[in-house]
Design brief:
Layout (H helix, E strand, L loop, with lengths): L5 H18 L10 H4 L1 E8 L8 E10 L5 E9 L6 E10 L7 E7 L2 E10 L5 E5 L6 E5 L6 H13 L8 E2 L9
Antiparallel strand pairs: 1-2, 1-8, 1-9, 2-3, 3-4, 4-5, 5-6, 6-7, 7-8
């Protein structure tokens, strides 16, 4: 085969892989124990969204309510880790028969967004949340930092699920200090 055809062939192969992965339904984890998932998570990386513009030091805290939904409290600092704190509170509702892996989050009535847990550590030390259209993605951790090797493992799995890693941006977080 002529070399002049290899470039387009590789490009076509890449596009076929991309479209095949995107056309496949997004799989979630089989089940989530919401009592273990509750608590504070640090955003390690995300696909930047307009509603998070200028945010750093972003956290999400989930609390189980007595009414059967999850209370969602998102916080971030504007423009720097020393900036003004921004806060929003919402609710998350579990979709039935999804093993608690698919939720719908509502910050403003009547709008609800899909919140699908697509990767989760066995010990609940990290989680990956996405949307089936693959335009929203968050990598979360129980600690403000993830090791580079673990981050690479997670992003490789995310890419295999059809997410475009060129959109992924690391989130500035606090670092541990010696005492």
């Amino acid at each position: 085969m002529s070399m002049k055809y290899l470039g387009p062939l590789f490009m076509l192969s890449g596009w076929m892989t991309f479209f095949t992965s995107c056309s496949q339904p997004l799989e979630t984890v089989p089940s989530v124990d919401l009592s273990r998932y509750a608590g504070t998570w640090y955003e390690i990386a995300s696909f930047p969204q307009s509603f998070q513009k200028g945010c750093c030091g972003t956290t999400a805290t989930y609390t189980l309510s007595d009414s059967g939904y999850v209370i969602v409290e998102n916080r971030c600092y504007r423009d720097s880790l020393d900036g003004k704190q921004s806060y929003i509170r919402g609710k998350a509702f579990v979709e039935k028969n999804t093993g608690n892996a698919k939720l719908k989050v509502q910050f403003f009535w009547p709008f609800r967004g899909k919140y699908w847990i697509i990767d989760l550590a066995d010990d609940y030390s990290y989680a990956v949340v996405g949307h089936p259209n693959r335009e929203y993605l968050w990598i979360l951790s129980r600690t403000p930092q993830l090791s580079d090797s673990l981050y690479q493992e997670i992003t490789q799995r995310v890419e295999k699920k059809g997410f475009d890693l060129s959109k992924l941006a690391r989130t500035s977080q606090v670092t541990a200090t010696a005492e």
